[in-house]
Design goal:
Elements: H1 2-9, E1 29-31, E2 34-41, E3 46-54, E4 60-67, E5 73-75, E6 82-83, E7 88-95, E8 101-111, E9 118-128, E10 132-134, E11 138-145, E12 150-158, E13 164-172, E14 178-181, E15 192-194, E16 199-206, E17 213-222, E18 229-239, E19 243-249, E20 256-262, H2 273-290, E21 294-298, E22 313-314, H3 319-329, H4 340-350, H5 352-355, E23 366-372, H6 383-391, E24 400-406, H7 421-430, E25 434-436, H8 443-454, E26 459-461, E27 472-475, E28 478-479, E29 484-487, E30 492-495, E31 506-512
């Protein structure tokens, strides 16, 4: 028995059968290679269902699912993660594009599929629509002097694929110191329609009127689906260089004197003679209505003298009589006079006996010098040098006012009315009137000059440069809200006739200094 057992235990390997090994069963993922959302309008959304199937003989486990981009894309978790043979799992993909352009994203699914553990599904689509892009979304103007202005350019661009319609551009703030400006069309005509890739520029301006910090909000309303209301915050600080108060005592105007210097174009037969003679009587009517004593002369250019029987015309004559005397004064010696500065200088010397006569306070009278010419001034020198000479005749230089009727000082310089630059400068320096020679009617011109001669329209010239918004005018301590205006040309406050301060009153003008604008 023991021998038999030993023989059995010592049998050959060929006599032993190997154990059979059972095959390993695994899952096999089956899923679409691409999900297309087609064409969408920005702001709309579309949901696509993605099915994952187990095509293997064993179980399939979904380990994870991730999107390569979340810009407008969202996804639900698979509704099942362990799939038997033939089993299905569903994911919901939603695309809600926020900007125009193509969708180029990938969904990556990890499973325990031994052959394809990583599966990538392409996600495609095309989004269309307008897209508003703005060059700045905020701006700090910093410190800007009162009376000055600072600007910044802003550009609006359509980065979309269809037309952008901007229905309104507005700004809101409490004090009106921020302004919007574009070309002559766009700020008045809405909507702005910008084709894809096109831009519109406009300017933001900060012009402070007060010494304070202030801010504003610029708002653009458009059909950009994701940003229908775009806001730009702007702010700045108004600063002042100082404050000033000017005081003026309004003296009773008891006397007025005036000298006219002209060329022969304004005489009878001159090319503009009719315009002058049709209006000169209005000049004397206006003077006489005021009841102010006056003396007026029309000078001959070579000597500063006058022709005729009287050295000056005063308030003892009627308006029609005064016109006849003007004709006498201008007879026989006007000539082609293009040097009115020189003529007036000669006249001040030649007419000194009655211009500056102490009896009757003529020495302290208001003296108006009027230059009229359609040609360029040929006296030589500057307005400053000529005024310096004129001022030597008066103790108070504010008693000399220069007026001129001539060609546009900023014009081209050719044609009938040439630039009358230096006489214009003299009007600016003294607060006088500069009037257009080429007007076909001078009645309004003559009324203005007569009112200035008699003193009703005194220019209250300020001692420094103001911030116009800050000017406050008071008459005898009472603030005047209307009836006056500020002239930047003359740097003076001018009163309307009905608001002119009475004799003996005090005019107080408060203002902030504008400072040096950068």
């Amino acid at each position: 028995m023991m021998l038999l057992a030993l023989l059995l235990s010592c049998g050959s390997e060929d006599d032993i059968s190997p154990l059979d090994t059972a095959p390993v069963l695994s899952g096999d993922i089956l899923v679409a290679g691409e999900v297309s959302f087609g064409e969408l309008t920005v702001g709309d959304s579309l949901v696509q269902a993605l099915l994952v199937q187990n095509a293997g003989e064993g179980e399939l486990e979904i380990l994870s699912a991730e999107l390569s981009s979340t810009d407008g894309l969202t996804m639900t978790a698979p509704d099942a993660t362990l799939l038997t043979t033939g089993g299905l799992s569903q994911l919901l993909l939603t695309w809600e594009p926020t900007t125009p352009g193509d969708l180029d994203a990938t969904l990556t699914i990890l499973t325990d599929d031994p052959d394809s553990p990583t599966t990538e599904i392409a996600l495609t689509g095309e989004a269309n629509g307008p897209m508003l892009a703005i060059s700045i979304d905020e701006h700090n103007f910093g410190q800007v002097g009162v009376g000055c202005a600072s600007e910044v350019a802003m550009t609006v661009t359509n980065n979309g694929t269809t037309d952008l319609n901007i229905s309104e551009v507005s700004q809101t703030n409490s004090d009106g110191e921020f302004r919007l400006d574009a070309d002559e069309y766009t700020m008045e005509i809405f909507p702005w329609i910008l084709k894809p890739g096109y831009s519109q520029e406009f300017t933001l301006e900060f012009a402070p009127s007060l010494d304070h910090d202030t801010a504003a909000l610029v708002e653009l309303y458009s059909d950009d689906a994701t940003s229908p209301r775009t806001q730009v915050q702007i702010w700045g600080e108004g600063t002042i260089a100082g404050e000033r108060t000017d005081f003026f005592d309004v003296d009773e105007q008891t006397n007025a004197t005036a000298l006219f210097a002209m060329n022969d174009s304004n005489t009878v037969g001159g090319w503009h003679g009719d315009v002058f003679w049709d209006s000169i009587e209005v000049f004397f009517d206006t003077l006489l209505e005021a009841g102010v004593p006056f003396r007026v002369a029309f000078l001959l250019p070579a000597t500063g003298q006058v022709s005729g029987s009287v050295p000056y015309i005063d308030d003892s004559y009627t308006a029609s009589e005064a016109v006849s005397l003007v004709g006498e004064m201008m007879t026989g010696g006007m000539g082609d006079n293009d040097g009115q500065f020189s003529t007036l200088a000669l006249g001040l010397n030649a007419q000194a006996d009655w211009l500056f006569e102490e009896n009757g306070n003529w020495d302290d009278s208001r003296l108006s010098l009027i230059a009229i010419n359609h040609d360029t001034e040929q006296s030589g020198g500057t307005a400053t040098s000529h005024l310096s000479n004129y001022y030597s005749y008066k103790e108070n230089t504010e008693d000399i006012i220069f007026h001129a009727i001539g060609g546009d000082p900023g014009g081209a310089g050719g044609g009938v009315c040439e630039r009358y630059t230096e006489p214009y400068n003299a009007t600016v320096m003294t607060g006088g009137y500069f009037l257009d020679y080429c007007d076909t009617s001078w009645e309004e011109h003559m009324v203005k000059i007569a009112e200035a001669v008699r003193g009703d329209f005194n220019a209250f010239v300020l001692s420094d440069n103001p911030a116009p918004y800050s000017i406050t005018v008071k008459i005898d301590g009472v603030t005047l809200d209307e009836g006056w205006s500020y002239s930047e040309v003359t740097n003076a406050v001018l009163f309307a006739e009905e608001a002119f301060p009475g004799s003996g009153s005090e005019v107080t003008i408060d203002y902030h200094l504008s400072g040096e604008c950068k």
